[in-house]
Amino acid sequence: MTLDIGELYPKQKEFCRATNKYICYGGARGGGKSHVSRIKMCLLALNYSGIQILLLRRTLKELRENHVLQLQKLLKGIAGYKESTKEFIFPNGSRIVLGYCDNESDVLQYQGQAYEVITLEEATHFTEFQFQTLTESNRMSGNMKEKFNPRMYFTCNPGGVGHQWVKRLFVDKHYKETENPDDYLFIPSLVFDNKYIMENDPQYIKTLENLPEDRRKAMLYGNWDIFDGQYFSEFDRDIHVCELFEIPRNWDRYIAFDYGLDKFAVLFFAVDTKGRAYVYNQIHKEDLIVSEACQMLKSYMRGQEYKAIFAPPDLWNRNRDTGKSTAEVFYENGLHLQQAGNNRVQGWLAVKEWLKVRKKRHEQTGEEIKESDLVILKSCNTLIEYLPQMQFDSKNPNDCATEPHEITHICDALRYFCVSRISPSKEVVNNELRFNFDIEKPLNKDYGEEIVVI
Ligand SMILES: Nc1ncnc2c1ncn2[C@@H]1O[C@H](COP(=O)(O)OP(=O)(O)OP(=O)(O)O)[C@@H](O)[C@H]1O
Ligand SMILES: [Mg+2]
After folding, report:
1. Same domain for 382 and 317?
2. Banded model confidence at residue 212, pLDDT cuts 50, 70, 90
3. Using CB atoms within 10 A of its CB, is residue 363 exposed (0-12), middle (13-18) or buried (19+)?
């Protein structure tokens, strides 16, 4: 009995060797993801007697076209296919069960079942609810004698109903307290990795190159920041996100925030002598009453001078009981706020203006480089995660949607900065100052927040 797996490419081998709980092979089209996922399922079934594997696609049609025929070919003489139950049965008791989840609730049929391995093909076509429901079935089935850590495999392209959860877990790696980062492995896929296509079907690359710009970025280069309905489609990690660096002392600093009991979202900005703004720190915290928000903000400011603290105009509304406005409470706490404009459409267009990508030539090399007026230091992970998720409002195409609400607060803070008048910082005339960077130390851990060392 021989399973002919042919030659696997380096990333496909990495996929096969991985033993993490959640392994995602995702990105551009045509990298060889489905090919290797089928092979891996067969290898697991042969290596571990009695293992139960569930391979899912969103629809029955996709399942037939993408897997049944190919698996029948691969497993000829090795495992028999039972059409009525859509499963491959191996002589050693292993099974590969093929399934689909057309509707949201179809996933419930797997509740109460147990599979050591679950594979979601085109995982971004599955909702987060479906993914989470399936994790409950990813456990030992009781048919295996050997020890095995149950795991799930995902293959996918950007875009689709599951784009957000796949991106959060595998690309942004933004975890909740209950999630263990070591459980998640992401292997980025590119069509250029696939020797078979490069040699036999170079026309396919041309097809991907001819896609409209956003789709091309996603499908040819595996860019996860692009997807349908994205308001800030200009956002590009390679251009808008940078490594941490020390903020020169002569750069003016600003703060902009959005305050509500549900979220206190704050961004810290430093502006260079050409007027480029760097978002260098953030706060994203819920359930803070005004005085607590003030204390927290002050602990982040650490006595540093700020040219302005921008806040939305509704903070100047008087509270009916106390007669005081939120802005007044900030003032009493030593924080003098400036009202930012609150015209949403104008504000979002201002953000787009700041994010606009310009092409220019490198002064020395002549090489073309792309840059924008707004850059985010990579430690500001909430802003980096949420900004590309902002969607168009379905009723007003110039506005951003206010749902999901969670993602809007920090983007509102960015809007308050972008709509305000900022001037470039002054050049340093004193040479001593030019090299005198202001290295800050994390001073306050009172709130359990990590303070970024800039
Ligand atoms: N190691 C390999 N050896 C030979 N052929 C391969 C190999 N890997 C992939 N291929 C072939 O390349 C083509 C594309 O592969 P596959 O369908 O697995 O890509 P994919 O990443 O799943 O694409 P998509 O993003 O469209 O789902 C298929 O014809 C597949 O059989
Ligand atoms: Mg595929």
Report:
1. yes
2. confident
3. exposed
| Exposure on the CB side of residue 100, measured as CA atoms within 13 A | 15
Cis peptide before 150 (omega within 30 of 0): no
Do residues 77 and 196 both lie within one domain? yes
Query: Tens digits of per-residue pLDDT, 14-54?
Result: 999 999 999 999 999 999 999 999 999 999 999 999 999 99
Provide the residue range defining the domain that includes 160.
10-221
Q: Which residues line ligand 1 (CB under 6 A)?
A: 6-9, 12, 29-35, 157, 189, 194, 196-197
Residue 373 lies in a domain: yes
246 and 191 inside one domain: no
**Which ligand 1 atom lies nearest to the CA of residue 197?**
12
Residue 251 and residue 210 share a domain: no
- Count: domains in the chain: 2
CA of 14 to the centre of ligand 1 (A): 15
Q: Give the domain CATH number at 246.
A: 3.30.420.280
By the CB criterion, residues less than 5 angstroms from ion ligand 2 are: 33-34
- How far is 81 from 89, CA to CA, in rounded Å? 6
Ligand nearest to the CA of 187: 1
Assigned domain for 1 exists:
no
Q: Is the pLDDT of residue 436 over 70?
A: no
Pocket test for ligand 1, best of 29, 66, 196 (most atoms within 8 A of CB): 196
Cα of 77 vs centre of ligand 1, distance in Å, is 23
- Does 210 share its domain with 249? no
Q: Examine the pLDDT at 383 and tell me if it is beyond 50.
A: yes
- What is the C-alpha to C-alpha distance for residues 90 and 81, in angstroms, rounded to an integer? 9
Arithmetic mean of pLDDT, 224-253: 88
Phi, psi of 382 (to 5 degrees): -70, -45
Query: Ligand 1 atom closest to Cα of 70?
Result: 31
> Does one domain contain both 265 and 192?
no
Q: What is the pLDDT of residues 148-193, one digit of tens each?
A: 999 999 999 988 778 889 999 999 898 988 999 999 999 999 999 9
Cα(181) to centroid(ligand 2), Å: 26
